[in-house]
Inverse folding.
């Protein structure tokens, strides 16, 4: 079932409980195909295998990060109103870049990513650096049909555990990205088709493994920030709903009933 552009109360409750919403077929072909072709062409014409680690850590096709066909997947589809609804009435920073993440096919040697939340204790950043955001929206451009096809794996509800971890166990500058009880988990595979989307709270831990399928798994990710994120970022690690003023009451309801 496609996720409705106007979210129901049930959708909002799901997002509060799981930190994740999946939208099937949310991206129309008219936006999907030009974006997918652009990335395909980049892989054929510009991919440099000596930079695979940097692409995997940061982004493939870095020169396309601001391309209108990629940004359009977010700005011109039902994703933008959906994210606006989750964060409302908070304003967001205008989107400037897309991240392209590809898991190469046929079990190619590509570093796996263990459970983590983005932007905290990142192996490719200085350990003290925080490079967080409010939520991430991912669009499947190719692949992801099965869990072993390089699918993103996420931990529904993991945002609550991570908030406790950041409050009680974590110190800025440490190398460990998650507590052991999170690191051990496989998570739920995003088995999906091109045009499907995932919207994930920043604190939801996730990982990604090898792609054993013959099809490249290509995702475009968009990191969305509350307009006041630079000021709120550190507190938002321990207060998952600080940047979601419209959902704070639902989250409080959830806490009292659990
Ligand atoms: O490749 C993916 O789908 C996920 C990548 C990821 O977790 C990241 O770039 O932080």
């Amino acid at each position: 079932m496609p996720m409705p552009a106007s979210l129901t109360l049930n959708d909002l409750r799901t997002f509060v409980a799981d930190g994740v919403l999946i939208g099937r077929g949310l991206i129309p072909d008219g936006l999907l195909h030009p974006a997918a072709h652009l990335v395909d062409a980049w892989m054929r014409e510009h991919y440099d295998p000596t930079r695979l680690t940097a692409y995997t850590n940061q982004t493939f096709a870095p020169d396309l990060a601001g391309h209108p066909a990629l940004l359009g997947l977010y700005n011109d589809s039902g994703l933008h109103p959906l994210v606006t609804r989750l964060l409302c009435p908070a304003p967001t920073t205008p989107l400037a870049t897309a991240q392209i993440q590809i898991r190469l096919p046929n079990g190619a040697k590509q570093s796996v990513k263990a459970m983590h939340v983005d932007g905290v204790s990142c192996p490719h950043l200085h350990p003290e650096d925080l490079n967080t955001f409010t939520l991430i929206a991912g669009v499947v451009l190719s692949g992801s049909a099965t869990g072993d096809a390089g699918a993103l794996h996420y931990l529904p509800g993991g945002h609550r555990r991570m908030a406790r971890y950041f409050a009680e166990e974590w110190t800025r500058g440490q190398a460990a990205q998650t507590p052991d009880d999170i690191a051990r988990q496989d998570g739920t595979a995003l088995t999906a088709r091109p045009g499907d989307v995932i919207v994930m709270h920043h604190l939801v831990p996730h990982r990604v493994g090898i792609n054993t399928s013959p099809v490249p798994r290509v995702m475009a990710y968009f990191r969305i920030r509350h307009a006041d994120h630079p000021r709120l970022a550190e507190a938002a690690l321990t207060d998952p709903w600080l940047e979601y003023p419209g959902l704070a009451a639902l989250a409080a309801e959830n806490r009292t009933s659990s």
Remarks:
- The chain has one domain: 9-241.
- The mean pLDDT is 93.
